[in-house]
């Protein structure tokens, strides 16, 4: 009898265990099914969005409108930062949920959705609107509860999605101090180091110095100034007190530079001042005075010699097709390229030696610019490149231990390093005809 009772108890326990496993699997499947229901809360194509409104729990509202460009219309009219808006648009065009929390939420207060932290209303070109409500943070802290207006389904979304959409006007505004089209610049004027320099574009779209007199410009150095002006931005997160300090520092600071760029829409400018070790700026695109980084301040604090082209030859990385070299003996050698070969008259020359000489010409730079010192030339090079479209002609002379050079038909005098000139002369003398081929070994 006792054995039968034990057997019945074991069977009952097994049945209970089996029922538990069944229910557990059932609920797991339901949870898995519920968790897999992760539709996109927002799926509005970027090209269909005409407006965005962000209403926050603190009562602030930011509204944006799409015209030719995105613009902030509320709380005040401001140009929008295209990069910041594009980040929002990426979220709006495909906001996926993490999981479905409630199919039919009876009490939205449980999720902070009765009075949401953020309401994002997206308006399409056809006038239809979608409103996303974002509530409290989940207990785990990596997500937020969210739902669409008019629906009772409650989902969770990643915290990064909330961060992407929860933006103020200050965060979304265009923070550039100067706004211009760098591809359409025609003029750059820089007043720094007690002088004013004006740059214009030549037919090759390269910068040239126009004032105080026509000079070759270092195109890369000028482009660096343009880049620094274009990248100059305000810090929109500064407090009102810090903004007042910046205004006072600018007013009492010493002017470092005033830069003006001109594109198709007109002139745009930025002024940089320095107070103690800090730099402050006022730009034509935004109101107020702003603390800026040292890189900008030092980057615009440039004089004429900083921005002149120090290279003696303009052929750059183009391969020359003809080189005429006149030495101290008055004799001229003319090297011309025929296919891959370098020829001196009818004689083939060692291409390695010619290339070494070309490299020395390419690297030849001034150590400083001077007003005088050039005397009778003792070395001259005339180089042709770019299919005959470019001709560089440079003459070099010595005065004591100093070496000077001029570019023919240009007024500038360049002082060059004496050792560099010695190496250039040596490279010219090292150009030889190719070594004769060795006889093949007899078998």
Number of strands: 28
- Top CATH class of the largest domain: Mainly Beta
Work out the count of structural domains: 3
C-alpha-based Rg, rounded: 36 Å
What's the N-to-C terminus distance? 110 Å
Task: Tell me the fraction of residues in β-strands, as a range.
Answer: 35-45%
pLDDT < 50 stretches: 14-36
Structural class: alpha+beta
Output mean pLDDT: 90
Helix content: 25-40%
User: Can you tell me the CATH topology of the largest domain?
Assistant: Immunoglobulin-like
- Largest sheet: number of strands, sense, barrel closure: 9 strands, antiparallel
Provide the CATH architecture of the largest domain. Answer: Sandwich
Count helical runs. Answer: 10
| Morphology | elongated
Strand order of the largest sheet: 5-4-3-2-8-9-10-11-7
Distinctive features:
443 residues; Immunoglobulin-like; elongated; 10 helices
Provide a short characterization of the protein structure.
It is built from ten helices and 28 strands. It has helices spanning 2-36, 82-92, 159-165, 169-172, 219-231, 240-252, 294-300, 304-307, 351-363, 418-429, and strands at residues 40-42, 49-56, 61-66, 70-74, 78-79, 95-96, 99-102, 118-124, 129-137, 143-148, 154-158, 187-192, 195-201, 207-211, 215-216, 254-263, 266-275, 278-283, 290-292, 322-326, 332-338, 341-344, 347-349, 366-370, 379-385, 390-399, 402-407, 413-416.
